[in-house]
Amino acid sequence: MLLQVDRLKKKYAKSTSPALKDISFSVAEGEFIAILGLSGAGKSTLIRCINRLITPTQGTIRWLGKDITIASGKDLTMYRRSIGMIFQTFNLVGRLSVLTNVLVGRLGYMPVWRAFLFRYKTSDIKAAEHALERVGLFHVRDKRADQLSGGQQQRVAIARALVQQPILMLGDEPVASLDPMTSKSIMDILQMINRKDKITMMVNLHDVELAKQYATRVLGISRGKIVFDGPPEKLTYEELNNIYS
Ligand SMILES: Nc1ncnc2c1ncn2[C@@H]1O[C@H](COP(=O)(O)OP(=O)(O)OP(=O)(O)O)[C@@H](O)[C@H]1O
Fold this sequence. Notes:
Elements: E1 3-10, E2 20-27, E3 32-36, H1 43-50, E4 58-63, E5 66-67, H2 73-81, E6 83-87, H3 98-103, H4 112-116, H5 122-134, H6 150-162, E7 168-172, H7 180-196, E8 200-204, H8 208-214, E9 217-222, E10 225-230, H9 237-244
Parallel strand pairs: 3-8, 3-9, 6-7, 7-8
Antiparallel strand pairs: 1-2, 1-4, 4-5, 9-10
The structure holds adenosine-5'-triphosphate (ATP).
GO cellular component, one term: membrane
Domain ABC transporter: 3-245
GO molecular function, one term: ABC-type phosphonate transporter activity
């Protein structure tokens, strides 16, 4: 098993009730998981706990059998390196070139001095260019990232995650600020990566139809609890009502 989440709880310091309550599930290699739920249900909190951008209050997260719930230092760096992350707001550095943004994905593999001096190895540059080719953006590699459209910026973010050579890719509402056509093109790229590179996907989505179309498994979250865990075909009207009630 790739990832095992056991009885996970997260309570933010100033809130009265926990954002996540007793969440348990496992993720196998190759799955494409969509997380559905109302705004405030706890989807982002779950993704952030898995990537350890925040530390859970209780419970355990195991990665390839190893407990990483409170990992720090080198262990945390190594763990994070195997996880690519894409965000709703793309999180690129606008004034830097597209290629340089993609190269950021290689930082976990190089000594700090190289990163500081922007001295990337030829093999890193080749890997970044190849990733840009795969998302169809090789031709804009020298442009400033802030000159691209939202959909293009998300593709750059995917290329950045790809050069990290991740095992799992997490997406926190990666298509929420894009129009329907662009959203589909981004989901197509994620599906291609999932199928060809065998990178496991876990993405928060607002759109049930996208989840049905692309996911192999859906986790429905309501008020910090999993209320549905199954294939998209089993998402009946009643189940959706349960998730979104
Ligand atoms: N940093 C924080 N400090 C305190 N409470 C927080 C923090 N982040 C989230 N919360 C609360 O935790 C709960 C779950 O929020 P979360 O962002 O995980 O939900 P979500 O399902 O991702 O919603 P959305 O789709 O709106 O982002 C909400 O009640 C939210 O207000």
